[in-house]
Amino acid sequence: MTRPEWGPEPKYERVLGYPGPDVKDFIVLAGPCAIESPEQVRAICREIAKRGITFMRGGVFRAGTYPPERPGLQLDLLIEWKKIAVEHGLKTIVEVLDIRDIELLNPYADAFQVGARHMQDYALLIELSQVKKPVTLKRHPGSTLHEFLGAAEWLLKGGCKPILIERGSSTFMNHVRWDLCVSLIADVKLLTKLPIIVDASHGSGRCELIEPLTLAGIAAGADGFLVEVHPNPAQSLSDARQAYPLANFVHLYGRARELWQLKRNWEETC
Ligand code: PEP
Ligand code: MN
């Protein structure tokens, strides 16, 4: 009897065969949860560009748990964001929520983010993989390692080389918003050569846990980190509790980079 095509066995040959990116740089994606104003964008661009960071991430079209009261105007902000990013030599990572928006966003996005809720939106993954731009893929808070790698397989199948992001699971624990899965980072590094970064902002929901969990992720093998920063966290329109103060970014970046470098040196001498 032939086995059916579907089944519980993991099937991700492209993921397992992927030779890894050409350049193995420290990956840092920093920016606000929500793009709020040109002033906010300018302050963040100024700070992160000083550190030699390439990509600024930000939410323009938000995947909110509840519908916004004042939708609209986001495209104007996106255009402004892109303009300011270019002035600072930065590239933009824009989350895309809907397959129908890809064309509209494409001129302003140097890379696309697939948010956690869309990890298994295969139509979106197929379409995005055709755009030939970097795609960051966030793990759904309820997805397993195998489902995550299955989603990465869809992107690889279309010719796109994804960067994976671990951003925590839904959990019975109530001291955190989502629970960062450090073991998943270590296992992805054991199984594959895909780049994976740690997002301790969503992976805890608490600003004061961002540094220790970012370092934990890097110690487990993460190739970098994502952090939500804000010039004035208390005023953040979205995810204020997990907004990391922009003024402290240099400290977080320095420590994370140092640990990543140390791990890299170990790997090279082993
Ligand atoms: C985000 O990165 O701003 C975001 C909404 O994250 P997630 O999709 O992981 O919830
Ligand atoms: Mn957020």
Q: How many independent structural domains?
A: 1
The hetero molecules present are: phosphoenolpyruvate, manganese (II) ion
CATH superfamily: Aldolase class I
Taking all residues together, what is the mean pLDDT? 94
CATH fold node name: TIM Barrel
What does the radius of gyration come to? 18 Å
Order of helices and strands: HEHEHEHEHEHEHEHEEH
Ends: how far apart? Answer: 46 Å
Total number of beta strands: 9
Q: How large a portion of the residues is in β-strands, by DSSP E?
A: 5-15%
Please summarize what this structure is.
By secondary structure, the protein is of the alpha/beta class.
Overview of this protein structure:
The protein is an alpha/beta fold. 37% of the residues lie in helices and 15% in strands. It has nine helices and nine strands. An eight-stranded parallel barrel has the order 1-2-3-4-5-6-7-8, surrounded by seven helices. Strand 4, helix 5 (122-129) and strand 5 (135-138) form a beta-alpha-beta unit. It is globular, with a radius of gyration of 18 Å. It starts with 12 loop residues before the first helix and ends with a helix. The mean pLDDT is 94. It binds phosphoenolpyruvate and manganese (II) ion. Manganese (II) ion (MN) is lined by residues 33, 228, 239.
